Predict the 3D structure of the following.
Amino acid sequence: MAQIRTVKCPQCGASVRWVPENRFRPFCSERCKQIDLGAWASEDYRVPAAAEGDPGEQSPSGRSTQD
Ligand SMILES: [Zn+2]
């Protein structure tokens, strides 16, 4: 019996089966995927690991993200 790997949806934390037919992996659904992409696009996304202690609102150069 093949084991199906599961991951957690980065958006809502739901269990997601990592299978080829899941087009939205690692997200659980298109909705979560769109939410995540939308957040990136609006630069309102905060990555905990990338937190540099600077809110960014007062940075002279503004954007510190390069990618
Ligand atoms: Zn989700």
